[in-house]
What we know:
By secondary structure, the protein is of the alpha+beta class. Helix content is 33%, strand content 23%.
Amino acid sequence: MSEGSSGxxxxxxxxxxxxxxxLYWEGxxxxxxxxxxxxxxxxxxxxxxxxxxxxxxxxxxxxxSEKRYFAAETFQPRFLTPQPDQYLSQLxxxxxxxxxxxETWLSNxxxxxxxxxxxxxxxPEVLRTILSAVRNRSAIEIHYQSMNPNRPDPVWRExxxxxxxSDGFRxxxxxxxxxxxxxxxxxxxxxxxxxxAGKAKAAARDDQMWHTIFTVQLMPxxxxxxxxxxxxxxxxxxxxxxIDIPIRKSFLYYFKKRLRLDIADKVDNPEEIPVVVANxxxxxxxxxxxxx
Length: 292
């Protein structure tokens, strides 16, 4: 059986990480938690707790009345680096009903909800055909409804897809367009139908905007007060009030829209646009290259 980074067997290390996760984020754990999640025996769960105490002495204390181990005041992580995103992402999955509580490492949940975002309808057969085309490096025809005023009705157009991309709200297929003769993004939800069209007419390696990374430098909006700029720098874990964000050039348009950077100079309240682009000249040049 393979070993984990600590030299322990992978299954053992995973259970010890689970124990530490529960101690850190939920304050305590008992044998039943380990048995219920991993399906191990009572003796094995007891052994895991004993082994954790041996390897991380002083991290937990046993309460006989509650028959439960609790995180001690001297607790120091031994098997994991606490990451809020890891915990919050599981909360989000539960709130959005992508997972049940039993499928996560959580048990004692706080009240939680997430802002609902309307999901775009995607035809499963369309997605299946696109995935097959990406795997097999083939071309397809898509019956596509664009928002181009010159194409008010759906048209069949041939593309050579090579990747999928999400802007956080919508899924696209990245493909070489045989009509416009360049690589573009096509919304999966607007692909009404598709069919095979032979071999791909362009290779993924030719999509320069997909493979080229541009580093966007963000800084607090200078229109904010000094203390407001300081908290924004802390929010985004900036170094000297600047943070570097490596992004594919093909994503720059979506990044600009997502952070509302396109209207930063048009909004009267700087609080609504907490960050702006520090290397704006280079950013706009890269954005223009990606859009051409």
